[in-house]
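Researcher: Good morning. I'm working through a list of sequences from a screen, and I'd like to move beyond sequence-only analysis. For each chain I'm collecting a predicted structure so we can compare shapes side by side. This is the next one on the list. No need for commentary yet; just the structure.
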Amino acid sequence: MTKNNEILDQVVSRAQSWLSEVYDEETRKEVKRMLEQEDKNELIDSFYRDLEFGTGGLRGIMGAGSNRMNIYTVGAATQGLSNYLKKEFAGLEQIKVAIGHDCRNNSRLFAEKSAEIFAANGIKVYLFDDLRPTPELSFAIRELGCQSGIILTASHNPKEYNGYKAYWEDGSQIVGPHDVNIIAEVQKVKVEDIQFEGNKELIEILGEEMDRKFIEKVKTVSLAPEIIQKFKDLKIVYTPIHGTGVKLIPEALKAFGFENVINVPEQDVVSGDFPTVVSPNPEEPAAMEMAMKKGLEVDADVVMASDPDADRIGVAVKNDKGEFFIINGNQTALLFIYYIITRMKENKAFEGNEFIVKTIVSTEKIAEIARKNKIEYFDVYTGFKYIAEIIRDLEGQKKYIGGGEESFGFMPADFVRDKDAVSSCALMAEITAWAKDQGKTLFELLQDVYLEYGYSKEKMKYIVRPGKTGADEIQQMMVDFRTNPPKSLGGGLLKVVKDYADLTERDLLSGESKKINQKTTSNVLQFFTEDGTKISVRPSGTEPKIKFYFEVAGELRSREEFEEVERLAEQKIDAIMEELDL
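Model: Good morning. Structure tokens for this chain:
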């Protein structure tokens, strides 16, 4: 028997078990259809493995099957989480969870089924009455004193996907040791164990009152209300790209004092089919094309977007030729950090215990701004749960004033413990007004940051290698980089190698080694050259990809040089990619 036949036999056997009466009629019908099809590829994709509950929860294509997002895979996740909560909080009279969902197809269904399962396990549930941004779910967990929470979202993935993110009592996504412990509980759950019939009395619906509380908190992020008053008619174009941002971001802008928020009507339509875009990701120019076109039409001061669950923010600014372009996530984070620190100094608001956080693959210019202003900063692994972990560790001792990562996420305050496009959009509009008060555009303000703290350009490239052979190839690439690192990059001599797999930092010039200050290891490598180039290499935890993050330094002496400095930096990154055969 060939290996392919063996796999097919296993898949058929697994699929046939889904024909039992435990599964609903619609699911059985769908499985039967796949079994009877001559082409077995769909059947294999749907059943060749269990959809893995990882450290970030679940994410996958929707449909029938063990490797798909459906009420049974979501149900197993919720039952496993319920089991863990009952063990971890056994002494509590009443365990409480909050549930939110985005605009995706089946998100409401999955949210309601999860609510019933929690309730069937004796857990009190606060379920939002309709779609809500991820940051509001994080806020609600803390506001209501919940022990956990979930949100049904696949963030900016294509429309075929949905996902399930789990949160802990501090409102952040789950970190160790709870993450691996919950995974172990989920893996024990069989379909017969899922308690689908809930006690409806334990389910409480959340509505506008929670929205109002959240917006009141968002208003506290403002650092320049008097400047907003002066520029309350600032022209702001905003699009939710069919997602949850439509519920609260225009409201947050209004609460800040902005009165001229211009929408993109076609993209205000809430839809899990994302009818106007291929991918609802503000990192991709195509997703923001309609908003930028609107920005040109109305001569907007800033164009902003949020992804479907409104945790990521996209910002487009007008260059000196009058064209809108999307600034990258590093540049967005730089503007936020620069503004927060500068404005707090102007307001004489520093107490000396403030800190900021960035992820290790994000621009080193954030660290440079912190150092020059004598603000403590921390480097953490990719993911806002690690930013939240630092906040939790320093709770009551030090004051968090901002943190972000290169993938279009920023968190301006700690009442939310995840990426927060609601607060970020409102604050970015304020930054635009602040710049305008000085006779500058956002583009010129970004140039100011580079003039004061040094120029850098960042780029990310990923290589997709699907399947087991792909996973082996990615693993071998990491082995090769570890055993045979490049001696130079873009003409700059390699100076420092950081390996987060064993938390070792090696200075190649002095021969010295020291320990990297992180709680856990991670399969990430970083190379630093003498001339300020930084390259980070990491396999993706959720997709069959290996990611390369490039950052090259440069010198900007005047605004007039900006285009040339950009061009040279781009050339250097291209040359490094060629050296690395990417």
